[in-house]
Write a structure and sequence with these properties.
Shape: elongated
Organism: Allohahella marinimesophila
Number of domains: 1
Keywords: Signal
Protein name: Lipoprotein
Number of strands: 5
Structural class: alpha+beta
Strand content: 35-45%
Distance between the termini: 29 Å
Length: about 100
Amino acid sequence: MKVKILGAALKGLLAAVPLSGCGAVTSVEKLDQEVKLYRIIAHGSAFQRNNQLREAIGAKAEDVCGPSKASINYDGPLKSEEIETYVNGRFTKVHAYTLGALIKC
């Protein structure tokens, strides 16, 4: 159930900015306080590439972990999903991309 709610929220957020030119981090979830383990998810439009989303995750990892080096383990390949968004007075389908990573400070 939590996954469906998160997916719906993510779709709503992606629909708001699908044609923007920069990758954005959509969530930072603390998984373990003692070992400082986090999950970070970045999203982007068709204009982003895998490395741009990785850069967005890296920047957020630096924000979360401070100046210390963060260990970043990506969840896998870039994931694509077709969503419907409102552009120039009409609804259209676009591809939205997500990339997740586990961060250890």
